Amino acid sequence: MFRFVVSEADAASADIADACTPRAGLASPAPATVGYWRADLETGHVFWSRCHFDLYDMLYTSGPVNLTEAYSRVHPDDLGLMLELIEHAASQKTGFHTVLRLIRPRGAIHVRSTARYRLAVTGREELVGLCEEIPHQLRLVGMAAEDPAPASLGPRGAA
């Protein structure tokens, strides 16, 4: 079980929901970047939105993604898991949700990546998903099984 912890400075602000990640070179904070992706399971081609390229600090292309370059941006300790999750989602016709570290020239970031299997309108099998930067104000903290659930999340197992 995991929970998000907000820094003390953010907790003191009146509107935590609007917390965002400052970007280098900008005078004011910008919202976290969200990119979308699609993988055609028949061809193996992967396509990203412009924002997804921004997350990986790669030049945009409207064609298939250069996966060699993309994989070089994933932290080496996270790459194997990411590839296993993609393979599992494709072969079992399911999805996944994970947190990855990206190593970029502008600096490292954490991203939340999700995917799900679907049949496209054309009948082709594909994975679709999103990749979202985790703002630096949030810290993912593991909770031991014996720790009580945070009051704001309600009892464990509640929907």
UniProtKB/TrEMBL annotation:
Q: Which domain of life is it from?
A: Bacteria
Q: What is this protein called?
A: PAS fold-3 domain-containing protein
